[in-house]
Amino acid sequence: MRYFQAMTTTISNIMRKKLETIEATASVQQAAMKMKDRNVSSLLIVDEKGTPQGIVSERDLVTKICVSDRIASAVTNQEIMSSPLITVSSTSSPSEAADMMLQHNVRHLLVIERGSNNNDNNTSNLNKPVGIITPLDFTRYQEYSNDNEKDTIEKILEYYI
Amino acid sequence: MTISNNISLESMPVSSIMITDVKTAEENQSIHAVCNILYKNKIDSIVIIKNSSEHKESKVPVGIVTERDIVRLISLPNTKLSVHDPIQLLMRSPLIIINPNNSIIEAMQTMQQKDIRRLPVVDNKEKLLGIITDKDIFRVILKNQTLTSSGTSDQILVDQQSIYGKFTDYWLRGLPIIP
Fold this sequence. Notes:
Number of strands of chain B: 5
Shape of chain B: globular
Helix content of chain A: 25-40%
Helix content of chain B: 25-40%
CATH superfamily of chain A: CBS-domain
Order of helices and strands of chain A: HHEHEEHHEHEEH
Largest sheet of chain A: 3 strands, mixed
Oligomer: heterodimer
Order of helices and strands of chain B: EHEEHHEEHH
Distance between the termini of chain B: 27 Å
Number of strands of chain A: 6
CATH superfamily of chain B: CBS-domain
Strand order of the largest sheet of chain A: 1-2-3
CATH architecture of chain A: Roll
Number of domains of chain A: 1
Structural class of chain A: alpha/beta
CATH architecture of chain B: Roll
CATH class of chain A: Alpha Beta
Strand content of chain A: 15-25%
CATH topology of chain A: CBS-domain
Number of domains of chain B: 1
């Protein structure tokens, strides 16, 4: 079984691993500073235990702070984040991820690495966020395993790009 | 868009794929007003033009503002700049532009060298004709894979592939993730 998995491209091969996080209770101004410092266009919002809660993107700052003329230092990330997060397992195939994007009508999926179930004492190891996948990442995925998969991914690229 | 095999990124002019419906704002409009335009049109950048009272005949571009510039504004802890100030205080200027007759390869090279993703297309009389973005170029490449292998000599072929490869990496690096 493992041998066959290794032979196939999974989401973990094509996802973006640069995943910057900030706490939900931190201010939007702090989020903007982090985006600028780390040169990223979105941040994963986590609670005090590090559990993913949502995403804040550059567009959220424009539409929910600037347009409403709110003071960024007085607004928390929790108030403006997009949630719930749609997640996908790092072992999924690109076409499974593409299907999920179409189903939920979202442009990003949080990639989760499932921890081993026998490690019951350490639940934080379960469902660890490891990356983000967007439609553009599929362009890295050159070799389609079959025509059906090719169709799904081309459809999603057509839709989003 | 379908393009026949004998056309290459070197021969295709920027004007053939540019977007002509460019949203603009005047340099004396407030940052707040510009954010509203971005929001209502669901766009991530806007070209700033000279005030229409002074330039009635045509749009003269002077700068550009992207979502990232708004992030920059919000991240400044003790700034005196407010959303009610004119956009000219926040915009990126001078503007890096491209001529409509330049090739798509030249547009790609300029984007790479200057580390930018959008090029306003401006004629010799400083008039704004359109805008070309990395997405527009990528879309054309994606749909016409033959474009990147249509060089007439090995040398050109290698150069194009290298630009295409770098461009792909560059483009995928930090694309906004927007729900």
